[in-house]
Amino acid sequence: MELVIALVVFLGAMLFCLVRGAALSWALALGLVLFSAVGLQRGFSLKAITSMAWSKMPKTMIVLRILFLIGILTGLWRSCGTIAYFICIGVRAISPPLFVLLAFLLTALLSYALGTSFGVASTAGVVLMALARSGGVDPAVAAGAIISGTYFGDRGAPTSSCASLVAALTETELYRNVKMMHRTALLPYVISLAFFTVLSLRNPLVAADGSLLDALSGSFSLSVWTLLPALVMLLLPLLRVPIWIAMLVSVAASCGVSVLAQGMGVWETLRVCVLGYAPEGVLAEVLTGGGLISMLTVFLMLPLASMMGGVLEGIGALDALRERLASVCARLGLLPTMALVSILCSMVLCNQTIVLIMLQQTMSRVYRDAGASNEEFAMDIANSGVMIAGLVPWCIACAVPLQMLGVGVEALPFSILLYSTPICYLFTKKRFYPKEA
After folding, report:
1. What pLDDT score was predicted for residue 134?
2. Is there a contact between 364 and 338 (Cβ–Cβ < 8 Å)?
3. Spatial distance between the Cα atoms of 350 and 339, rounded to a whole number of angstroms
């Protein structure tokens, strides 16, 4: 009974934080305290509970290192002109009749380079939406294409914190996961290309206001050197260089370009690493952000969620749920059960990171008992939980991009990559993991 009360209070705290706009880390901290108290009441010592909470931290520290570097890169790529270069070259190459399709392709390329959906939505996404509105393109259609593109990299880029988290949680190798993600994404990607091609022809760009692009090209020296930080991130992983080393090299390249090509001072560049980039004028709305401070909420949430999951597992709170899930799996199969749990977790917990951690906590033993490999477990999470979280309107993974782009839930039906990925994987998984079928 005490566990049910603690769970109800925790979910109430999550709802309160969402309604009031408070950081979810407060609710997670309360949940950690509540479930630790349940453990004490069940006879576990404080030392044992502390050990339970810390048991998940080694995996979490791997992800936090990646997040640390991602925070720095998202600021530096703004200040050194890399993002401005991608936006200017990409948008100016867009053919008006194919605006929606090319918006999808441009954001997919950027998200794969940056590994973040929020970072692309808040930069290139904002510019593309401004062009769409000024050019008579349906904002919902444009936003759907942009969101689909941003999640292409968020799910399957080696630079993605989400992909790194999935690899850490499932004890799998990141690059092998990325390779398999490419294979499983091929069909939904082709479907998305066809879908957005049709929508482009039905929603051509009539006229565009190029003032934002002029401001970008006028504020940065957009030479080929601004591509160096991105090329480092694209090429080094292909040479099997560890992702954190590739990120460090990209950080060094970004600092060099910011100082030598863009004329920033050394201390100003270091400030961008911590506090993010803050331009003035027209570009403030488009390029402001990044830096370590932008990852502060995640830095707090991830360890708290991990420790809470460790306590829940240690005190046996998840045992009954696993037994039920095992019976559901026997009737529906592993992937459909994973999808159902993903939907429920996304609707209740409202945060993609926490959803992924809870999927690992609740489903890992179910997959192990079913004889599934860690790689299959990782791919099922990547093709269900990662994408489904972006379709629940009140989940942060969905609500934040919608807010950045200035649209509502009317854009979700056009975010085809997000729901075609789990649907296509459901029907094609036999090709990749025949035992499960």
Report:
1. 64
2. no
3. 15
